[in-house]
Amino acid sequence: MIKKIIGIFLTLVFVSGLQAQFGYGFTVSTDVYHRYVNPKVPNDDTGRSAGSTILNLGIGPKIWLGSKNISFSAETQAIIGFFGLSTSEYKGLGTLAFPLIGKLNFKGLSTFDKEGKMGFSIGGGLQWNKTELFGLSDEFQSKGLKRNLFKTYVLQAGYGFGLSGFTAHGFLRYGFNKAVESSALSIGLQFDFNYPMLKKITSPESEL
């Protein structure tokens, strides 16, 4: 599957008629809303989900390979929701997620175009999630409830604006794991910084 994706990407780059470039930097995000549903546990009727709409911050490294019209990127983040909780059955505060995602980025979101443009991205990967990050309440600890990291398979789509190494875009990410009936949903804003392209903005040799 991975070989097929890489093959499709290389074909698209070739068809575009442009020389591939490499970029590195970082990405930051803020979830406007996210909700994680823990794996189902037999004989456990407690609420499995927790969500947050306030102070959900993420940051991590990112690399790009491609042209101004299309690029492939790989990224990971640590995302903390400081006030994530279950509104139906409070058990504790905090959420945590570690997405590991590969994307195809088009037009403005490729980060390699010196002209400002709109663009979009599609991708997928894995995400590890945890709720009640800062500990369970005494009531649920006494019941033997545990909250561990759980894995979901994620798909993500984004749309926004990009200019010479910088992008600002909205995204929708959904994760699932049918085997344990867990899921993860995130809606938010993401900002990418491709360092080599950003340097060209202030470089004397740059055409900008």
Q: Measured on Cα atoms, how large is the radius of gyration?
A: 19 Å
Largest sheet, strands/sense/barrel: 10 strands, antiparallel
Q: Tell me the strand percentage band.
A: over 45%
Mean of all residue-level pLDDT scores: 90
DSSP summary, beta strand count: 10
Structural class: mainly beta
Low-confidence runs of at least 5 consecutive residues:
none
Helix content: 10-25%
Shape annotation: elongated
Order of helices and strands: HEEEEEEEHEEEH
Number of helices: 3
CATH class: Mainly Beta
List keywords for this structure.
208 residues; mainly beta; Porin; 10-stranded antiparallel sheet; 3 helices; 13% helix; elongated
Describe this protein's structure.
The chain has 208 residues and is mainly β. It has one domain (30-202): Porin, CATH 2.40.160. Helices cover 13% and strands 53% of the residues. The chain has helices spanning 2-16, 138-142, 195-202; strands at residues 21-37, 49-52, 56-66, 70-76, 78-81, 95-107, 117-131, 150-163, 166-177, 182-194. Strands 1, 2, 3, 4, 5, 6, 7, 8, 9 and 10 form a ten-stranded antiparallel β-sheet that branches. The longest helix has 15 residues, at 2-16. The model has no long low-confidence stretch (mean pLDDT 90).
